[in-house]
Design brief:
This protein is of the alpha+beta class and 201 residues long. It contains 3 helices and 10 strands, in the order αββββββββαββα.
């Protein structure tokens, strides 16, 4: 009788062990989701980008020129449209070692801007960041095929950084249409209300 009880107990233990080994292992935790990148559509020598964020100007058109040997950025241009304001925002990035007071000048075959002043510099370069009027952008859409950014070095010498206007007009029209479609005002941050706190007197 005792032997039967021992056998029964041993069999029960084996069945429990088998059931445990047959049970699926707990699922590994899912890796954290990566932030979604921008949607990018190449048009000519420009790229139209729309970013997955609530913004009054979620899209821009972008061109970057790099040094062929060092692969370092020499020039980049970004143009965004702000539907609510019916204005454009321009950013130009150039290398360090420039004359800050001189600013930059955009020049094409039928357009020359006033000097555009730098807003800030960091270890990567110096930046023009400003609103531009629609008439200036319209002039750029009718220019071609190349443009120049004139910069003045610290020593006083003027350099021309060339960029392409191939696809500029089509990229602008696509970017502006997408901006109108996707533009949203960011939701205001709301502070949490503590129900236990006394009401203000």
């Amino acid at each position: 009788m005792k032997r039967a009880a021992c056998l029964a107990g041993g069999l029960a233990a084996l069945l429990l062990a088998a059931a445990a080994s047959a049970a699926p292992a707990p699922a590994a935790p899912a890796p954290p989701a990566r932030p979604a990148g921008p949607e990018v559509k190449p048009i000519g020598d420009w790229s139209v980008r729309c970013f997955p964020a609530e913004s009054p100007s979620p899209c821009d058109m972008y061109e970057e020129l790099d040094d062929k040997n060092s692969r370092q950025r020499v020039l980049s241009l970004s143009l965004a449209y702000i539907p609510k304001m019916d204005r454009h925002a321009l950013m130009i990035a150039v290398p360090l070692g420039i004359s800050i007071p001189s600013g930059v000048v955009i020049q094409t075959d039928n357009f020359t801007s006033a000097p555009l002043h730098y807003r800030r510099c960091d270890r990567q370069g110096c930046y023009v960041e400003m609103l531009v009027d629609n008439a200036s952008v319209d002039s750029l859409t009718k220019s071609g095929p190349n443009g120049r950014i004139k910069v003045v070095a610290d020593g006083g010498k003027t350099f021309e950084l060339r960029f392409s206007l191939n696809g500029f007009a089509a990229a602008h029209d696509s970017m502006a249409a997408l901006a109108k479609e996707k533009a949203k005002e960011p939701k205001p941050a709301t502070a949490a209300i503590d129900a236990s706190a006394p009401a203000p007197k």
